Recover the amino acids of this structure.
């Protein structure tokens, strides 16, 4: 094999590696979907889902990618989980058929249909959000994005945050509208390790 | 105006009551005043969730059965009417009574089957012991409610009182179990029965209830309380207690008392049982449905 061939292969290998799609799995300890709902127009109540699993792929050369995240609806929490003198808590109420109906729909999912890039980084993810049995388009804006080696364990990882907005009535979650706002703001903080 | 119709008291109470009242006043002349209940329920569903049936959740199945119940009830009433005619024409003189009992058993079993159809996908997800407990509670409570309800179907005051207490009981236990939707549906059912009862109390006349009224009242109330148990946090023993409301309205009242006195007394009997179920739901403290 000539030196030229060896040199070409040596040059091309890292490029090929860069061009290959990379896949990542979310770190459940550092990935939490949050939501925000207006309460009678006075305050904003924020909640989050404690349990979720997700995967994404990214091909920086082709500027393509995909994302799939599954959230366990029963893990919803708004910080109100002690009954005190009341018969039930708000978090228990959120799990009933009034809201997330966790008995019938234990999971909600987001599956991407397309990823748009800004430079080398993903900037927007279009996809379908499936909640209480209804699927509707949802766009997530990626507000921050960073990849590199974890400072401690040195594993390759990416992390960031994404936001989105949707109307819950479009999914059939009509309870309490408009006192409890129809518009739901999403904020997802995530970290994911390279597979 | 929009704010008014968004208020839960209007959605689950006032609007269903007014609609039911109109239905009773118009349709009692053709023996269909019992449709007041389905009218009240439909009004609440319209305001609370809308007429959407996809995906077909347990709650939407309950509403579908609520729509079907009076249709089956009307047919059952026709059968009963024919059975009454039988002795008149001298054929099978003792046949008049049996079909109603058989009909009650058939309707009770059909109610239990319908309830299991509603909640089967959820029961399948449970551990065996829990599935048996919840499934057994659902099947028994709905069958018992429907069956005993048919015993009082021909007494419109007892039927109205049982419907009132069943609806309010199912609704109030549901809110103690953290489901406001089921609370509103239960209250709407109670409001419909209340309208049916109120017209009788004011006019002093008894209108026809029959299976048209009673099947709607007992089946829907049973399904609401079962839904509150399996989809929210209503304890199973509250659901069982609620099932005894129609039986409580079989207690005696002064025979010559005016209709309004009978209605008040019978409602109190039913509400006493409903009160016990509500008390148990309030104090269940972690003894959840599951």
């Amino acid at each position: 094999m000539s030196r030229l061939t060896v040199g070409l292969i040596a040059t091309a290998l890292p490029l090929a590696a860069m061009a290959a799609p990379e896949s990542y799995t979310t770190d459940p300890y550092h990935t939490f979907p949050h939501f925000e709902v207006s309460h009678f127009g006075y305050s904003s109540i924020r909640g989050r889902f404690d349990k979720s699993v997700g995967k994404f792929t990214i091909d920086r050369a082709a500027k393509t990618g995909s994302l799939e995240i599954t959230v366990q609806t029963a893990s919803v929490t708004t910080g109100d989980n002690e009954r005190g003198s009341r018969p039930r808590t708000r978090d228990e109420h959120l799990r009933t058929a009034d809201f997330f109906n966790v008995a019938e729909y234990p999971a909600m999912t987001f599956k991407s249909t397309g990823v748009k890039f800004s430079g080398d980084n993903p900037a927007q993810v279009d996809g379908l959000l499936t909640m209480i049995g209804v699927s509707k388009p949802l766009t997530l804006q990626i507000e921050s994005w960073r990849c590199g080696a974890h400072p401690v364990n040195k594993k390759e990882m990416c992390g960031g945050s994404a936001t989105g907005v949707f109307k819950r009535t479009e999914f059939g979650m009509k309870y309490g509208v408009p006192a409890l706002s129809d518009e739901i703001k999403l904020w997802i903080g995530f970290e994911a390790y390279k597979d | 105006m929009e704010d008014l119709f968004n208020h839960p008291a209007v959605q689950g109470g006032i609007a269903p009551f007014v609609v039911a009242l109109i239905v009773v006043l118009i349709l009692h002349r053709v023996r269909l005043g019992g449709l007041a209940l389905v009218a009240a329920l439909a009004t609440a569903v319209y305001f609370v969730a809308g007429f959407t049936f996809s995906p077909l959740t347990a709650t939407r199945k309950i509403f579908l059965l609520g729509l079907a119940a009076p249709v089956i009830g009307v047919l059952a009433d026709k059968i009963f009417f024919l059975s009454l005619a039988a002795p008149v024409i001298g054929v099978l003189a003792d046949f008049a009574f049996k079909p109603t009992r058989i009909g009650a058993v058939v309707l009770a079993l059909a109610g239990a089957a319908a309830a299991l159809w509603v909640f089967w996908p959820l029961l399948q997800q449970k551990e065996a012991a829990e599935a048996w407990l919840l499934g057994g509670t659902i099947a028994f409570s709905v069958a018992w409610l429907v069956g005993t309800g048919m015993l009082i179907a021909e007494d419109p005051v007892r039927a109205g009182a049982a419907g009132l207490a069943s609806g309010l009981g199912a609704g109030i236990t549901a809110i103690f179990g953290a489901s406001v939707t089921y609370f509103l549906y239960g209250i709407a059912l109670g409001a419909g029965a209340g309208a049916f009862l109120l017209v009788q109390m004011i006019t002093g006349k008894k209108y026809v209830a029959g299976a048209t009224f009673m099947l709607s009242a007992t089946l829907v109330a049973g399904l609401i309380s079962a839904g509150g148990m399996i989809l929210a946090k209503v304890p199973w023993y509250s659901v069982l207690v609620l099932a005894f409301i129609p039986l409580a309205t079989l207690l005696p009242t002064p025979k010559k008392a005016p209709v309004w006195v009978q209605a008040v007394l019978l409602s109190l009997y039913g509400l006493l049982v409903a009160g016990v179920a509500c008390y148990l739901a309030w104090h269940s403290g972690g003894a959840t449905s599951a």
Q: What stands out?
A: Chain A is about 10% helix and 50% strand.
